[in-house]
Amino acid sequence: KLTSLALQPVITPELVQGRVHLKCSYSPPSPEPPVQYRVLWSRLSSPGKREQVHHETTPQSFSYVEMDGANLQLGDTVFCTVTAFRRGTPEQQSLPEDSKGFYAGIKFLPESLEIAEDGKEHVLTVLSTVPIACPGQDDFCKITLQLSTEDLGKSSQAPGPPDIALSACQVDLLPGPCSGSSCAAATVTVTAVTDLAQDGNRGSRISAEPLAPGDVLWRAYTPRDVKVTVRDLPTGNCYSFTDPHIITFDGWRYDNYKVGTFLLCRSESRAFEVHVRQWDCGGHRSATACNCGVAAL
């Protein structure tokens, strides 16, 4: 009979003799396990379509395949499919069981961001799902990623200057033990640029590129971009006009008929002030002052 044996194949990354391998582990059924397993390795070549890259028959409850940069490359989503049978009766085999897809490469968490022009910092984690290996460079081993941003604008607009700012232009991924889905990780903060313009919600993206990697596995690999949507917030306005009438950010109105230089507004979060200068424009008939200068510091 064709039956499901609940083999539950799972893919995990490992370093084997300094090279990145993927290990497919599966649970032998009890109480009387089959002797042989057929293991088929495949990669996602296009949406919904897999391409076979390796297969073997083994009595072991695991199977390895190397990430060699040719058959399996960074950026691939990999599967292993396991079928069990008894030695001498290969026609009596279990139903094939698939592992979950394992994405080998760089991941950004979260995979997309929606932020606002409010000055808040948002943490973006950059992690590698495979171990960092540097053959021949064990004393100083790391993968450096160059980060860049690009403004995508709106569909009706040409791309403009970046709408987001990063806390660092480079991050280093260092060797270490794999835990969960991460074998190396670094963080960077993302902040929306406050442009004081009512330009609607805009899209940006963050790209990463490995810098001069020593391992051939990392060459010609470009991680997926992160899409960032920047939500436009209303811009505050304050006014000083004519002789002069003042309207504050919160809409309070008053008049200032004095001659001199005055502080119009000051930021409480950064070093920024706006000063106005007023002179006598009423002569002897009335005590009236008018704006004659402004300075932003």
Structure description:
The protein folds into 3 domains: 10-104, Sandwich (Immunoglobulin-like); 106-231, Immunoglobulin-like (Sandwich), CATH 2.60.40; 239-296, no CATH class. It has strands at 10-16, 19-25, 36-46, 49-58, 62-66, 77-86, 89-93, 97-98, 102-103, 106-109, 112-116, 122-128, 143-153, 164-166, 170-173, 184-192, 202-210, 226-231, 239-241, 245-247, 253-255, 260-266, 273-280, 289-296. The chain has no helices and 24 strands. The protein starts with 9 loop residues before the first strand and ends with a strand. The strands form 6 sheets. Strands 3, 4, 6, 7, 8 and 9 form a 6-stranded antiparallel sheet that branches. A 5-stranded mixed sheet has the order 11-18-17-13-15, with no helix packed on it. The chain has a 4-stranded antiparallel sheet with strand order 10-12-16-14, with no helix packed on it. The chain has 297 residues and is mostly beta strands. It is 0% helix and 50% strand.
Keywords, separated by commas or semicolons:
single chain, about 300 residues, mainly beta, Immunoglobulin-like, 3 domains, 6-stranded antiparallel β-sheet, about 0% helix
Give the SSE string: EEEEEEEEEEEEEEEEEEEEEEEE
Cα radius of gyration in angstroms? 31 Å
The CATH homologous superfamily of the largest domain corresponds to Immunoglobulins
Q: Count of DSSP helices?
A: 0
Protein name: VWDE protein
Keywords: Disulfide bond, Signal
Domain VWFD: 236-297
InterPro entries: Dev_Signal_Modulators (IPR050969), Ig_VWDE (IPR057885), VWF_type-D (IPR001846)
